[in-house]
Design a protein that fits this description.
three-stranded antiparallel β-sheet; about 45% helix; globular; binds manganese (II) ion
Length: about 200
């Protein structure tokens, strides 16, 4: 079956994450930036070796424009999916919590390392909490459209630090954006990714 990249759907209304992420930012970031990556990818795939591949396969292996647009579609799908206006769970429990304590010492220490990775990443990119096959967790900085699949790791949590993610709401104050993001993380989604 021919690959058709579909626009990920939001699990909340465009104004529901305010004031952490405003409706205006959702309308541009989700509605314009992500839609453009989806459209670009659908325009680039026909006639290439990727016509029957999954988004994950393309994001993990493709180079050039196809790899960049697939990475951005995958990364944004994970980013927008992990938020909820009123998260049912405000911190990790169970297996994910155990893995965080094993890899970082505590939840607070993991948060602090994630904030440091996201705030010091130079230029455009993503900070990630990633899982290895053995369940070990690590925090990584990745530039542009890079993603954990390209490094043999599974994506668990991600912070978009491209300026388009926060500039309308926070201007140059990237650390304020990062501090606020923790309030809308839906840990049920993050636990499900880790346990998958
Ligand atoms: Mn983005």
């Amino acid at each position: 079956m021919e690959t058709k990249i579909v626009m990920p759907q939001l699990r909340y209304a465009a104004d529901a994450l305010a004031p952490v992420i405003s409706e205006q930012t959702i309308n541009f970031h989700y509605g314009k930036h992500l839609q453009a990556y989806v459209n670009n990818l659908n325009n680039l795939i026909p006639g290439t070796q990727w016509t029957e591949a999954t988004l994950e396969e393309i994001a993990a292996k493709a180079e050039g424009g196809i790899g960049n647009n697939a990475g951005q579609v995958l990364n944004h799908a994970l980013y927008f999916e992990q938020f909820a206006p009123k998260p049912a769970k405000t911190q990790p429990e169970g297996k994910l919590d155990e893995a965080i304590v094993k890899s970082f010492g505590s939840f607070e220490e993991m948060k602090s390392k994630m904030n440091a990775a996201a705030s010091t990443l130079f230029g455009s990119g993503w900070a990630w909490l990633c899982a290895a096959n053995d369940g070990d967790l690590s925090i990584m900085q990745m530039t542009n459209a890079d993603n954990p699949l390209r490094h043999g790791l599974r994506p668990v949590l991600t912070f978009d630090v491209w300026e388009h993610a926060y500039y309308l709401d926070y201007q140059n104050r990237r650390p304020d954006y990062l501090a606020a993001l923790w309030n809308i993380i839906d840990w049920q989604v993050i636990e499900a990714r880790f346990e998958k």
